[in-house]
Design brief:
The protein is α+β, with helices and mostly antiparallel strands and 237 residues long. It contains five helices and seven strands, in the order βαββαβααβαββ. Strand 6 and strand 7 form a beta hairpin. The longest helix has 16 residues.
Length: 237
């Protein structure tokens, strides 16, 4: 999962970098390159489990990581740059009402056809501009985390830590990509320790130039993004 040796298959567009080239201590768990995501399959456009970002966004993450490391904590990135092909695939996936494989974990209280209208996905995602990132905080040393495989139990992402999928993240109250009101960053119904963990992540990311998306505790975009009007479509490879 983390810190794998990957053969890189391309020269990136100007202004983009592989995150590991900026800070090799950052953990990466690229969910859309594998099976453990709300579609239940690897997503088109993700050829390899790598995080690509604009250099500006990567440098800002490096600064956040520097502060966390002093407290034996690290960032873990689930997604960075996202090809437009992936967003197009999500739009088709939403229309297939017969495919409800991952509903219990990722959208337990949302009708699949309403995911876009509810604001959890966009046909043109800020990720495709290269300066948005999905991430969490993990303690050091990194705790063991099982690798989810097709056929493993699909557990409600709203369950308490210890009952949902055993992500090695600090307790953020829900699983990553749980499309639910409990994932709204400032949801007041969550335990104090969860609210504090979310506040830590949000405060540090804002300090270094990111803004949080209020419906997803994990999603942040660089405010001064270099390509605010361009949606890229090169592969993650």
């Amino acid at each position: 999962m983390q810190n794998q040796s990957i053969n890189r298959a391309q020269i990136l567009p100007e202004g983009f970098v592989y995150l590991k080239d900026i800070d090799s201590t950052l953990l990466e768990e690229v969910r859309y390159a594998g099976w453990h995501n709300f579609t239940g399959r690897p997503v088109p456009g993700y050829v390899a489990p790598l995080v690509i970002l604009t250099k500006a966004a990567a440098m800002a993450l490096k600064a956040v990581q520097s502060e966390l490391k002093a407290f034996q904590l690290t960032l873990k990135i689930y997604d960075g740059y996202r090809p437009q092909d992936a967003s197009d695939f999500f739009a088709k996936w939403v229309q297939d009402s017969t495919d409800q494989l991952t509903k219990d974990e990722f959208y337990p209280a949302v009708d699949k056809k309403d995911i876009f209208a509810a604001g959890y996905l966009a046909k043109r995602s800020s990720h495709s501009r290269g300066s948005a990132v999905d991430l969490t905080i993990v303690p050091l040393p990194v705790p063991h985390q099982p690798t989810w495989k097709p056929g493993d139990p699909i557990l409600d992402g709203r369950l308490p830590k210890g009952q949902r999928f055993a992500d090695n993240s600090l307790d953020m109250g829900t699983s990553f990509d749980c499309l639910d009101e409990l994932s709204h960053t400032s949801n007041p119904s969550l335990p104090a320790c969860v609210r504090a963990n979310r506040l830590l992540l949000k405060s540090l990311m804002e300090k270094h130039g990111f803004a949080n998306y209020s419906k997803e505790w994990w999603h942040f975009g660089l405010v001064a993004e270099p390509y605010p009007d361009t949606f890229f479509n090169f592969p993650v490879a």
